[in-house]
Design a protein that fits this description.
The complex is a heterodimer of chains A (132) and B (378).
Chain A: H1 37-59, H2 66-85, H3 93-117
Chain B: H1 36-71, H2 73-79, H3 85-110, H4 114-145, H5 168-193, H6 197-246, H7 250-258, H8 264-276, H9 280-283, H10 285-288, H11 308-341, H12 351-375
Helix pairs in contact in B: 1-2, 1-11, 1-12, 2-11, 3-4, 3-12, 4-5, 4-6, 4-11, 5-6, 6-8, 6-11, 11-12
Classes of the chains: A mainly alpha (132), B mainly alpha (378).
Chain lengths: 132, 378
């Protein structure tokens, strides 16, 4: 009968032989990768520290470098979130490639638009735009 | 792992659902998948694709931000004084903590610890509520000051009036959460009375979360009142600073420099008078300055709808759309909470928690960029 795999077992044997033996206190996790608690906490505290850093950095006067400094720290934080909380570090390469590819496209989008941003200032005649 | 962790719905007996067929497939495994891993991987691909569309969606707004900031840095510098960094930092901390609890919920789901999922998801929803509470305070404060998107922007004055009591907009924002709090608490009470464990596990965390919205409001109000005095001074200093930048007159600047901080108020008046009329007014500006009914508009060059108003259009668009994503996140988190309360997750079926977790981390990811770009402009 098909009820052989009922409640006593922690997981289910599939027709393709997906059965596994117990693995200590983590139980059976064929494709599950539960993150260790220490790792979650470490990433959280690193993120908090970086937040404090970014607030501190904004109080310094770095002139033109301000925005790059903020963005760098933000990117480090984002990388921590993506790699560990979103467990991209254990993910399939295809998903990783897709996501990184997206960031490439965002960079193209912002990059090309910004390259063009200052090209038309000289063409605007003073006084031709009436402020409210 | 104890057997008690495995909950009732972990069963796969087919007789209990209306499956007509007899093949070996548990209720949580959809027909079109060969096995649990394939089901999980397919869902994972799907959610990553969705997150990618979300990143591209937000990147449009970031592009608008980048363009306009690069073209008008003075507007950004002026407008940033109205954003409270402390509240922004608190919100960042709250969202980071919610990401931790969400990642923890995923871990619990993978281990089949459904009660852990309930607890962690509940905490994530509570953090989201705190975030929205703080946001409500920020928004209501700005609406009161007239810091609105471009078409509605009201040029800011040097001495904004601080009315007593709660902002009426804040009261409007608190109506719906208040209703939720009442309904959820009643539902929880009923669950306790009928000893319905599943319902208790759902209603309990949700009522606490509704309460956390008000905690966020309280926190926001407490921090904003502390900042109010500071902001007053900042407005004056910023006003006189930007005036020095936009003013052609050298005499005028010297007169400003000569005065110290105590006369900052008078400086603002003197500066504005000097801009409008002649420079003779500025030398003994404070004698002439009248704090009469007409409250001077600070930094008139940027303090207008098509300048600072532009900043606020971008601000409301970005934080507003982000807040809508938080609301949607609360919705899907509640769905996961309900499933966990019913004990549906285990080591081969944890997809919903994982996918909602990815979405939630994306919301945090967006905020990680929004915070420095909007709040920490110097």
């Amino acid at each position: 009968m098909a009820h052989s795999h009922a409640n006593q077992h922690e997981h289910h044997e599939k027709s393709d032989g997906h059965a596994q033996a117990g693995h200590g206190h983590h139980g059976h996790h064929g494709f599950a990768h539960p993150s260790p608690i220490w790792q979650l906490l470490a990433v959280f505290f690193a993120l908090l520290a970086l937040t404090v850093l970014t607030v501190y950095q904004s109080t310094l006067d770095l002139g033109n470098m301000e925005i790059w400094a903020s963005l760098t720290i933000a990117t480090i934080k984002a990388a921590l979130v993506i790699l560990f909380f979103m467990h991209m570090i254990h993910d399939k390469p295809f998903n990783i490639i897709m996501f990184l590819g997206t960031l490439v496209f965002v960079a193209l989008f912002l990059g090309f638009t910004l390259m063009d941003a200052h090209n038309y200032k000289d063409l605007i005649e003073p006084g031709s735009i009436t402020p409210k | 792992m104890s057997a008690t962790e495995l909950d009732a719905t972990h069963n796969h007996s087919h007789g209990h659902d209306d499956h007509g067929h007899d093949h070996d497939h548990p209720a949580w495994l959809a027909h079109h998948f060969d096995d649990a891993e394939q089901q999980f991987d397919s869902g994972k691909l799907g959610i990553w694709l969705f997150l990618i569309t979300e990143v591209l969606f937000f990147s449009g707004m970031f592009c608008a931000y980048a363009m306009y900031r690069s073209l008008h840095p003075e507007i950004w510098t002026f407008s940033s004084q109205f954003l409270n960094e402390t509240l922004g930092a608190i919100n960042t901390g709250v969202l980071l903590f919610s990401s931790l609890t969400m990642a923890w919920a995923v871990r619990c789901a993978m281990l089949g610890q459904n009660r852990g999922v309930v607890a962690c998801t509940g905490m994530t929803i509570a953090c989201a509520a705190i975030f929205l509470g703080v946001k409500a305070v920020e928004y209501s404060h700005k609406i009161d000051l007239g810091l609105l998107p471009a078409g509605f922007y009201v040029p800011q004055v040097a001495h904004p009036e601080h009315h007593e009591g709660l902002s009426k907009w804040l009261i409007y924002f608190m109506v719906v959460p208040g209703l939720f709090l009442v309904v959820l608490t009643a539902w929880y009470g009923q669950a306790v009375a009928t000893a319905n464990s599943v319902q208790k596990q759902i209603a309990g965390p949700l009522s606490v979360s509704a309460l956390c919205f008000f905690l966020g409001v309280g926190l926001g109000l407490y921090l904003e009142s502390g900042e109010a005095a500071e902001h007053g001074d900042k407005a004056h200093v910023a006003a006189s600073d930007s005036h020095e930048e936009t003013h052609a007159s050298d005499n005028h600047s010297e007169a400003d420099h000569a005065k110290d901080g105590e006369h900052a108020k008078d400086e603002t008046h003197a500066a504005t008078d000097g801009a409008v009329s002649t420079e003779t007014a500025s030398a003994d500006g404070h004698a002439e300055a009248s704090h009469s009914a007409d409250n001077e508009i600070i930094s008139p060059d940027v303090n207008k709808p098509n300048a600072a108003g532009l900043f606020f259009s971008i601000y409301y668009c970005m934080t507003g759309v982000h807040a809508i994503h938080i609301l949607a996140g609360i919705g899907v988190l509640t769905w996961v909470l309900v499933k966990a309360a019913k004990g549906q997750f285990h080591s081969e079926y944890f997809g919903p928690v994982d996918y909602v977790g990815l979405y939630w981390h994306l919301v945090d990811f967006i905020w990680i960029y929004l915070f420095p770009l909007l709040y920490l402009i110097t």
